[in-house]
Design brief:
mainly alpha
């Protein structure tokens, strides 16, 4: 998202703050009371303030991504992890109960429901952290590749289109975190002006939904790169890829890239 849009969001946030200070909850719709003399000083001041808010939103977006990725700690983490594991187990039991041959449509729905929770049994408190582990587990199980060490090298042997798609999905995820950060910021003046609280809550939900969609896309691209360009990586490392996909080749690639680490 360009800087002009961030500046616009910053200006809207300043309007929400002014409305909260001037109108309050009782006269929330009396926008005629919001008056500002359009002098050079006020315009420049508003632009500088909006820029500062936009910078703060970008920084807060990084915090949101860290929360999505790591989740809480302590008892909260254990409780959330346990709840996610129970949901996955119930969905997995439904997959087992459905006859794949007799009712393929019901089987597909049951699989989709389980996979929306996680592609592997959950072990983390948040969806994103489990999605990261699931991606690494699936690639390690299928190919013997350690994605932590192999991913930079896979990107270098992949064509430009694959690298662009990976960067695009990752940028969309970063922007989703910033969207949620804007939602949190709008909740602050919402304590004095309820339309800002309503807008902030909606923006938070939109950002969270965009974040899930973006990370799902990024995970799919990552797995596709491993599926398609694992043999190319082996060839570039002068490792025999004639038996690909096999775990021995993937583990040899991993050992080479680890360099003893």
């Amino acid at each position: 998202m360009g800087p002009h849009f961030r500046l616009l969001y910053g200006m809207l946030w300043l309007v929400a703050v002014a409305a909260g200070t001037t109108l309050g909850h009782t006269r929330w719709a009396d926008l005629s009371r919001l008056r500002l003399e359009p002098t050079v000083t006020t315009v420049v001041g508003a632009l500088l303030a909006a820029t500062a808010v936009a910078v703060m939103a970008r920084a807060l977006g990084g915090v949101v991504l860290a929360i999505w990725t790591n989740g809480p700690s302590g008892r909260w983490a254990a409780a959330l992890t346990e709840a996610r594991a129970r949901r996955w187990q119930r969905a997995d039991a439904l997959v087992t109960a459905v006859n794949k041959v007799a009712d393929p449509a019901a089987y597909a729905r049951a699989m989709a429901r389980r996979n929306r929770i996680c592609l592997v049994p959950p072990s983390c408190p948040t969806w994103t952290s489990d999605a990261i582990i699931a991606r690494e587990t699936r690639i390690r199980t299928e190919y013997g590749l350690d994605l932590y060490f192999a991913w930079p090298h896979l990107l270098l042997v992949a064509p430009e289109a694959a690298r662009r798609e990976s960067a695009r999905s990752l940028a969309a995820w970063t922007w989703a975190g910033e969207v949620s950060a804007w939602g949190v910021l709008f909740l602050l003046p919402g304590s004095r002006w309820w339309p800002a609280a309503a807008a902030g809550a909606i923006i938070c939900v939109v950002g969270w939904w965009q974040g899930r969609a973006a990370w799902t896309s990024h995970t799919a691209v990552t797995e596709a790169v491993a599926d398609l360009y694992g043999p190319a990586l082996a060839t570039r490392l002068r490792i025999d890829a004639s038996q690909w996909p096999d775990l021995a080749t993937g583990r040899e690639i991993t050992d080479r890239l680890r360099k003893g680490a």
